[in-house]
Amino acid sequence: MGDNRQHERPDRDGSADQGATQDDIAARVRAARAGIDPSHVPVMLDRIVELLAPALSRPGAVFVDGTLGLGGHSEALLKACPTMRLVGVDRDTTALERSAKRLAPYADRTHFVHAVYSEIPRALDEAGAEHADAVLLDLGVSSPQLDETERGFAYAHDAPLDMRMDGTQALTAAEVVNDYPVAELTRVLRTYGEERFASRVARAIERRRAQGRIDSTRELAELVREAIPAATRRTGGHPAKRTFQGLRIEVNAELSILKETLPAAISRLDVGGRIAVLSYHSLEDRMTKKALAALATDTTPADLPVPLPDRQPELRLLTRGSELPTDEENERNPRAQSARLRAAERVRWPSRQ
Predict the structure, then answer these.
(1) Is the four-CA dihedral 253, 76, 51, 345 of positive or negative sign?
(2) Which of 55, 56, 180, 349 qualifies as a cystine partner to 274, CB 3.0-4.6 A?
(3) Average pLDDT, the chain
(4) For 245-269, what is each residue's pLDDT tens digit?
């Protein structure tokens, strides 16, 4: 893409608010919250609307919700931006079905695609859109996936070891637990679960599976609890939470997909368009920080006296570091407590290579 593509859409100048005042945005946030089910309030909803609504003011603006879930963020933005179009993407077919019902009043402005979020370019193509004006990635596991016991995401309930976000894929948590070599299982738990005692847990799993397959979440959670030193079990929540996190990330290839997703999504973001990413653990947040910061940096060689136009930043960071939910939101929605939000705006197209 060359810089000349900026001129294909003269109504976009890359400014921060596209003419919307702070009062306008505040009013949109209040309107967007109206009627939201209080039992399913999306994480950092007000801030997401505040950040993305300015980029969606132009008639026909395209918003890509790359992790549609229950559709709460999308519903709020459809209310706040009455001329925008939604491209809703999710790898979970159940989520797509539920969101389609929830967003039925906006059917003439919505298009749903069953895909992983690294396929945002394909989703845009299917929707007949060349660019996105805003993109949201709300990472991690969704509320329905946690709440539906039979999906095996939660260690608090007994269920089959599944953990697939996309029920059509082959790999399950049971296969990882029962079939991975101990060294590979240790890597998964240490790298993705950030489990200090990954080797101990993996060896305990190896000993147990020699007696027969481990197929239930309760059995695995109890095995992990016994493998963790007693002194450590007294603090930091459930002893199995890091093991379950590591397995979930492995089963769904979350980090490898995110690594592909960030450049893919940004490549289709229009000048003046914005991207927001909600992360729920440090691995996701570090990856997001690195991807956004790399494109928000002037790469002119230090020994040159003037900045080079083709080395100027492509993005402008909209958040100072990662933003956290308010104390009030954490009290209202415990699942928001680990959330970290980063956002950026495209200020120019990359130069021709």
Answers:
(1) positive
(2) 55
(3) 87
(4) 999 999 999 999 999 999 999 999 9
Token pair listed for 107: 């059917």
Q: Please give the full DSSP string across 62-130, using - where no structure is assigned.
A: EEEETT-TTSHHHHHHHHH-TT-EEEEEES-HHHHHHHHHHTGGGGGGEEEEES-GGGHHHHHHHTT-S
Which run of H or of E encompasses 343?
strand 340-346
Host H or E run for residue 17: none
What length is written for the chain?
Answer: 353
| Global confidence as pTM | 0.84
- CA gap 295, 304 in Å, rounded: 20
List C-alpha distances in Å: 97 to 11, 89, 90, 196: 35, 11, 10, 39
Query: Minimal CA–CA distance to 30: which of 85, 73, 61, 76?
Result: 76
Rounded-to-integer distance, Cα 26 and Cα 128, Å: 31
The tens digit of pLDDT for each residue in 280-301 reads: 999 999 999 999 999 999 988 8
The CA distance from 220 to 245, in Å, is 13
Model pLDDT, residue 187: 98
Token pair for residue 149?
């016991």
Three-state secondary-structure class, residue 315: strand
Position 142 scores a pLDDT of 65
Q: What is the pLDDT of residue 3?
A: 31
Provide the 10 A C-beta neighbour count for residue 291: 22
Taking only the tens place, the pLDDT of each residue in 196-213 is 999 999 999 999 999 999
